[in-house]
TrEMBL record:
This is Uncharacterized protein. It comes from the Bacteria.
Length: 319
């Protein structure tokens, strides 16, 4: 899994781009949508194509954002898009046409497969996910049922059938803490920048920010101090962190800002292009887009500024 790299580009960036998926050129997007239509037709379902979704005759809508990003990032290029589209269509139709897992799984099994998931708040439907908990500006925590081929995001109605929300959330967090660490890499340079990146195929890798103290003990053997850590969760399969101990937090903050922005673009399951300060379970945003939208900048409040001044005055860490 790439850390900084992006998926293969085929048409030059100066060719006209698709309105819904700008990582595709207009021609690439047309080919992609043709593969999607053919994939659903092979499974006996005629669909109407829209920019970012398809709709069948029954009015069911299937979004294409994740599939488009998966195709864009596949190293094999366009020759793999048909296969990926067929696999996606088959999975989607098995999920929507089959019985609900809430009706077929025993309550104990449902609780064993329950996880919290951090998502970007864009498009979050408050009517169906009124229980969503704000994690940081623009980020929310939902509960999800992990299934063999899909992840079921649980609505208010679904949770009402399962029990009390806070009890379910506690169980989901326990399940999250027990997940194995699939992979970890260190990013560093000779200017003092250093941060750790946890990667994995799990859809809950980035969501482990909700159990950060446990994750850091698992991966580094360290414990967080009262100063906390920098964190970045560009997309669902990556979580970066830097345990704050000394002035290396400054170059690490800059490096993580670049890392988060790069990882967020054009990826399936994108969450956030920003860096955050985790302290005592509270997550504060430290980077934002420039006013002209052309880049990112670091913006810190009084508390974080005082932290930086204290660490600079303290000098190099002795640990």
């Amino acid at each position: 899994m790439r850390l900084f790299g992006r998926g293969p580009r085929r048409d030059p960036r100066d060719t006209p781009r698709d309105a819904a998926f700008p990582f595709f050129s207009v021609d690439e997007a047309a080919y992609f949508r043709a593969q999607v239509r053919e994939a659903f037709a092979e499974h006996g379902l005629e669909v109407t194509l829209f920019e970012s979704a398809v709709v069948d005759d029954a009015g069911r809508q299937f979004g294409l954002g994740n599939l488009a990003a998966v195709c864009h990032n596949d190293d094999r290029g366009q020759r793999a898009w048909g296969e990926l589209a067929r696999r996606h269509a088959a999975m989607v139709l098995r999920t929507v046409d089959g019985p609900s897992a809430l009706d077929t799984l025993a309550p104990a099994q449902i609780r064993a497969q329950l996880y919290p998931r951090v998502i970007n708040g864009e498009g979050l439907d408050p009517e169906n996910f009124g229980y969503a908990r704000s994690v940081a500006p623009g980020l929310y925590e939902l509960l999800a049922l992990d299934l063999p081929e899909s992840v079921m995001m649980l609505t208010d109605e679904a949770l009402g059938r399962l029990g009390e929300t806070e009890q379910l959330r506690r169980r989901a967090l326990d399940n999250l803490r027990e997940l194995p660490v699939e992979g970890r890499e260190t990013v560093e340079d000779d200017q003092g920048m250093r941060f750790e990146v946890v990667v994995g195929d799990s859809f809950y890798t980035a969501s482990r920010v909700l159990a950060l103290e446990t994750l850091i003990r698992q991966t580094t053997g360290q414990r967080l101090t009262e100063d906390g850590a920098l964190v970045a969760l560009p997309f669902r399969h990556q979580l970066a962190f830097h345990v704050i101990r000394d002035a290396t937090v400054i170059p690490s903050l800059t490096g993580m800002a670049m890392f988060a922005a790069s990882g967020y673009e054009e990826t399936p399951g994108a969450i956030s292009p920003y860096v955050y300060w985790w302290r005592g379970g509270t997550i504060t945003q430290l980077s934002e887009r420039d006013e002209d939208g052309g880049g990112l900048r670091v913006v810190v409040g009084e508390d974080f500024q005082e932290l930086l001044e204290r660490l600079v005055a303290k000098g190099p860490s002795e640990s």
